[in-house]
């Protein structure tokens, strides 16, 4: 009989939800949550459900992407992104710095959230950026952008008008980042939570 490999120890005070084919392993890390520093209303703090994270990703308008330059320096810039079919999607021109960085190293991080300490959910998605070149997939993602950003993309006076055609014509590159690991940092008054999602 083959011995079972040792289990990875969980963070002190962590809570883990069962895995399913549709959802990641979800773990509340109490070290960085209110659970170990109780405040009124914080004693029952729980992990943020992945469905809630996906809802926030679909509603967000501004994301920040971090890529790695060939010399190891980081490059951070804001962009728009759409959550579709289990991945965050974004586009960039082939001459943009992030496109050059991703050509050498596909690792990247996308973040979004709220700059208030008293409310919101900050989300970090870590993964590998992969080109989306199939025309049918591109059209599906473009539709997701149109749904998420509405007039910003679809209206003639919209700041991103022509976004879809630019991708279809190959003027802009379309990337998908399926999360390898993601984090949710919740803040609700004095109640804080830190949730890790492992895929």
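^ Assign residues to that structure.
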């Amino acid at each position: 009989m083959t011995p079972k490999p040792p289990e990875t120890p969980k963070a002190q005070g962590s809570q883990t939800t069962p895995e399913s084919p549709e959802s990641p392993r979800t773990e509340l890390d109490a070290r960085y949550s209110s659970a170990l520093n109780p405040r009124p209303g914080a004693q029952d703090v729980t992990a943020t459900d992945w469905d809630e994270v996906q809802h926030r990703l679909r509603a967000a308008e501004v994301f920040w992407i971090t890529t790695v330059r060939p010399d190891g320096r980081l490059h951070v810039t804001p962009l728009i992104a759409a959550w579709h079919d289990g991945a965050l999607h974004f586009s960039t021109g082939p001459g943009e710095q992030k496109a050059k960085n991703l050509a050498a190293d596909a690792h990247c991080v996308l973040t979004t959230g709220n700059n208030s300490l008293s409310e919101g959910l900050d989300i970090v998605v870590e993964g590998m950026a992969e080109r989306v070149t199939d025309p049918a997939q591109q059209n599906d993602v473009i539709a997701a952008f149109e749904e998420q950003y509405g007039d910003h993309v679809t209206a003639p006076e919209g700041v991103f008008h022509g976004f879809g055609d630019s991708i279809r014509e190959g003027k802009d590159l379309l990337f998908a980042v399926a999360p390898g690991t993601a984090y949710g940092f919740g803040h609700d008054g004095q109640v804080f939570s830190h949730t890790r999602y492992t895929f």
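Confidence is low (pLDDT under 50) at residues 1-13.
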